[in-house]
Amino acid sequence: xxxxxxxxxxxxxxxxxxxxxxxxxxxxxxxxxxxxxxxxxxxxxxxxxxxxxxxxxxxxxxxxxxxxxxxxxxxxxxxxxxxxxxxxxxxxxxxxxxxxxxxxxxxxxxxxxxxxxxxxxxxxxxxxxxxxxxxxxxxxxxxxxxxxxxxxxxxxxxxxxxxxxxxxxxxxxxxxxxxxxxxxxxxxxxxxxxxxxxxxxxxxxxxxxxxxxxxxxxxxxxxxxxxxxxxxxxxxxxxxxxxxxxxxxxxxxxxxxxxxxxxxxxxxxxxxxxxxxxxxxxxxxxxxxxxxxxxxxxxxxxxxxxxxxxxxxxxxxxxxxxxxxxxxxxxxxxxxxxxxxxxxxxxxxxxxxxxxxxxxxxx
Length: 363
Fold this sequence. Notes:
Structural class: alpha+beta
Shape: globular
Number of helices: 9
CATH architecture of the largest domain: Alpha-Beta Complex
Number of strands: 13
Oligomer: single chain
Radius of gyration: 25 Å
Distance between the termini: 46 Å
Strand content: 15-25%
Helix content: 40-55%
CATH topology of the largest domain: tt1808, chain A
């Protein structure tokens, strides 16, 4: 089994067991030690994976990190663990203290579901305030897997990781800033562009005039980019299927194979597979509710199926965005979603009882 498959298998286990984990120690055993093992380190070798390593400071004794990973006799990674239901933002100062007392270049704060990776890019031996990498095991991307692979025992290269860390840290922060400006342009942002096209003084009246124009221009650029990518995808598909023919340029309304609708403004792509899952759910629920009351709403991260087109009445969600694993999300009495791996659309029928029970609760 390769590294990617191991991580997806662990992701599936976490999704199934997280509500059953009552303690921090259980979190370590069920989620965190398997992750350390997936990274190629021997959790049963106390010279390689050291539990409860002393990280004492001069004025504070008895400080111990949950795990320290050694490589060639040197500590390279510190791992501070919390219960899987804990909010990690409440505990980063603790890891920061341990980091100062160690020669490790990387610190990891985790609850077994989310992993936050820190280093000391800003000041030597002082842990940065923000992580350079955050990985959610319940929402793994191809990029996440590639970044985690760099910490694998077989691929570990300090200088390469530090180089990547710096790029990731600043890229993540820049993406956050740019995204915020795109959604709600600040006065400074609007003023910068207004000055490029307006010769007079940019006062509040001009800012009010240009703010929606700048936002509209941004949306237009994003739409054009999406359209271009969809066009390229269509051309690529034609080339694969008819390599002996010269593909014609796709029409503006052409969609890639398997795609039935695209909301360019919101960046939402609805696939035939999602529509098929919706029809399966309607078939399952037909005995207990009028299917005319069952609706769907597509979003960037999931495909929601609702009763009465009401967000407060979710029936289930389909998570089909990952390339190698698909989930159906079901809701309990409190509205909490639990995701289950499905191998094919036929597996949705295995959850017929739960889906019908969900609808009947709303009735």
